[in-house]
Amino acid sequence: MVFICDGPALVYYRDNGLPVEPLPLDDQFESRLDSLVASRGVDCIICSTGITGYELAALKCLKKKGVPTVALLEHWTAYRERFGYPDEDWRANIPDKVIVFDKKAFSLAKELGFPEKALVLEQNPRHELLRKRFLTVSATMKPDPAKFSILYLSDPLEEASLRIFGVKDYFGFSELTVLDDILESIDRNSMPSAGLVIRRHPKESAGKYDNYSSSWVRISKSGDLLDDLAEADIVIGSFSTAVVTASLVGKRSLSYIPADSIQRLADGMTLAHIPEIVSVTSKVRLASEIERSYFLKFTTQGVL
User: Fold this and answer.
1) Which pLDDT band, with edges at 50, 70 and 90, does 65 fall under?
2) The pLDDT value given to residue 304
3) Which domains occur in the chain, in start order?
4) CA–CA distances in Å: residue 237 to residues 224, 227, 240, 277
5) Is the pLDDT of residue 81 over 80?
């Protein structure tokens, strides 16, 4: 077994003592992947799915070589886009098996045109492991009970829009407009102890949000999402799977997509069907949900 990867995944696997083969997504990607497969005698390839094009490039290459392919679809958004949609032949990129982890994901994939014979429904062992690890992490954290922490989980939406649809503004909003809306929704006069933590996506540049830093806004430096979740009172994102993780460990989680944008999105591109996640489509509702969580925390504690 060998992990072929690049970027943050390479660091993670290497740091955890797993066998890795670094492979950047460049002009030599296909030829280097061919060589790795040949030298390693690969019998099957198993990959995750993303919107960066890395896994898609690998699938295209290996399917041409006749290597059996399996994809783990741990998401509930942008199913078709992960395999090359809106190209007309995106279905040709679907691997031999696509493993999903709940009945909703199975039904959604079928509705979106995935062949049922390729779909496999399994239990996701990572969810229970996440919950257990979160309990361990939480036990070591000591968040200030007098503070109210809002965690923003960013997504590189403009980059994804450009790669998938060829334009930066296909979604009609971006990670920065979402952040601006969050900031405008936090009334510091009525919620003086509220603070915002911005957690950037691993593929975003380190200094992307530095200009937003202030006395009550900080940029997370933690390498572990669970550290930030342990300190958060409410979590806000858009499409990010990290929002799903937040809901899995019991955090109040919002998926914010402006109403005029959500109408433009294809089926299966939001988290609205996940009952544990609150779907928010207006700044008024966003401000209301933040304020509700704020006062619920402190009235429960008897502070107000």
Assistant:
1) confident
2) 46
3) 3-125 (3.40.50.2000), 141-300 (3.40.50.2000)
4) 17, 17, 6, 10
5) yes
